[in-house]
Amino acid sequence: MHTDTERCVRAVQAKDARFDGVFFTAVVTTRIYCRPGCPVVPPKPRNMRFYPSAAACQQAGFRACKRCRPDTSPGSPEWNQRADLTARAMRLIADGTVDREGVPGLASRLGYSARQIERQLLAELGAGPLALARAQRAQTARLLIETTGMPMADIAFAAGFSSIRTFNDTVREVFALSPSELRTRAPQGLPSAPGAITLRLPFRAPLNPDNLFGHLAATAVPGVEEWRDGAYRRTLRLPYGHGIVALTPGAERYIGCRLTLTDQRDLTVAISRCRRLLDLDADPVAVDDRLRADPLLAPLVDKAPGRRVPRTVDEAEFAVRAVLGQQVSTAAARTHAARLVQAHGEPVEDPEGGLTHLFPSPEALASLDPEALALPRSRRTTLITLVRHLATGALTLGPESDWDEARARLAALPGFGPWTIEAVAMRALGDPDAFLPTDLGMRRAAKELGLPHTPAALTARAAAWRPWRAYAVQYLWATDSHPINFLPTA
Questions:
Q1: 71 pLDDT exceeds 80?
Q2: Residue 5: CB partners within 8 Å, gap ≥ 6?
Q3: How does strand 63-64 pair with strand 32-34?
Q4: Which residues are identified as catalytic?
């Protein structure tokens, strides 16, 4: 996008917020960079330069606009709709891998040399992994400065900086203000519980919260997840500790987010995982335009545009839950998962009560006795095989996963058929083109709409919906009266 100068200029002149995070506009006369939807008078086209990332703008010597705050825009939808090296690297950087493991750790996870990754990111994003991670640290620091009363020294290390001096220098360079000046200028913060960090998660409109939060609430595992006071709450397993998040729909272009963390260094990772859970970096206009081209899907899209794919904060957890949900009702799947949580989950303290455990890790489940599982024998075998492969690293499910390779590895395990594999691809791995033609709810909805309803015929018809078939699944599921399709009222 950033190489199409004419298209970028039109977006900036129209102040089109749909492109926020897709590219950034740098102004050579002011040395400031903005998001396309910046409310100020657009600069002259000859003074505009376009970059694919905030990090590239910063590397070129531009500082963030104080008005539109481009560093807080939604992430590029590119990284959620692709599975190539660049996209997988960007998902890992967002998950804090460079901060924790350095560029060698990033390279190791991706299976490439550090030099190859550096070259690829520079070519496509104008910045290497260190610069991209630095831009992310700067945004985390700003968030903590403006929304908490933490001492600056604590913020520096919580945001991932190696020293207070580096923290101070980076904040001044990126925002043209010192940390203390940023705090002084900050608007009145959101109300926050003691020890919690309250912030807003931006998204591209429209966003329909019904199936998104409805699905999470209806399938919530007791002790790990709950719907309370208009918010979805759950526990989070994080690199340095654990956390509890409350996510609230309803705000225009923002999801309310309240985080309680045992280690503030996990803030960036927690935000990244919550964004992935709610599919907040999606481009709903592109998705809906493609699906609307099918005359039988168009009425569904027009009725409730902006549906997202409810995803997960833990890929291994979802894979386990997908196995527990094979050929049983939503209520039965919750019951099976709750038993595992009570027996093998790690206890946590919830200041607000209601949440009691982290979902058990593959390592904790790998040694469980199959006979203790109230499941058919074949499903016990499937579950035990899965968790042992996850625990040993023979199977990896994460931001770095190649979607096709992960599908092949899952297919090699006993008990993994097309439905389970595609469910994991759609909700755990985040493949926007995952498709479930054998799903009973899908076939019933297709028949009612006049679409082909046998798996082969439905798959053939769905070729026109690519690469957004996972979103078509959401629209088709939404024709049912199942609780997953409705925002809870309690």
A1: no
A2: 48, 50
A3: parallel
A4: 34, 439
